[in-house]
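Dig into these lines:

——
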Amino acid sequence: MNSRLYTLDYLRGLSAFGIMVYHFLYWLQGPFSANQFLGRVGVYGVALFYVLSGLTLYHVYDYANIGHEFSWSTFFKKRFYRIFPLLWLATICAIILSRKQPNPLDLLLNLTGMFGFIRWDVTFTTGAWSIGNELVFYTVFPLILYACIRRHLLLVALVLSAAALHHYFGFHVLDTNNTLADQWHDYVNPLNQIFFFIAGCVIGFLTKQHNLSNALSASILFIGLAIFVITPAVGNNICLVTGWNRWIFTTACLLICLGAYKLKAPLPGKLHSALKLLGESSYSVYLLHGLVFSVWAFLLNRLSQLGFEIHIWVKAIVPITLTLILSYFVYTYFEIFFMKMGKSSLPSK
């Protein structure tokens, strides 16, 4: 049985937390520049999710050394119970809060998960576009796993194809003269993001059976963070995802995930417990923070009308705290319930 990858939990949780903080401050005080750390987290935090997703799935489903066959039905049942209940809840809540009549086709695509294949930028709640991308990646994961285990030439072809797409979008599709927001449809295209997921699988394939010292793993992690922080980039965040910066920041993300994956040093005591819980509840943090902020923004508007002046940090800290509390309860009493339901629906061994 595979041991729990606590360091990946830490990274997943911190990525979700960083995206949440980025969005809250963006909505409160305006956009970040490409040279600001949070501006970079806002763009590449989701990329880290994709790498971690591919890496974790390969780590769990690599049966090359235990002689078992991959079960499509088991894989997709687990993914269904893990992804869809919270996606449905967040989508329905977002529609209620918007007080707008949803387009029936858009609603159908979101509830079935088909939006990632057809209309990947048409969602109802913050961040749901990336879930659509993930659902696309899950459909090709069995092929990636098969290639890793039995057809290495096929794996090379998949990696090169994904890298070519990565390069094509970064150099030819996305225009540095327009903002990222103006090109959102192209940016969130799953074909523009799939390299991260496949690269995560490849990291698992190449390194799962190899132990690295904690010193080396920490060095890899530090180098990735250093590249992420100090790489020159100014102006609109479009420059983070175009040209050679696309490959530089992608490399940083891969190094960060590799270092965290091979670092076998759980943090001590309460810090471990807090980051572990943050990682476990990261899906709730990610999908619910936009809903929390929409309610908070309504309350802020009413308070402003009554003449109350609230400091910017209070405006940010309150929804952060509320999101973390809500996410804890949703994870504990909602997500875990459906994960257990998914396991109980599988045939006994």
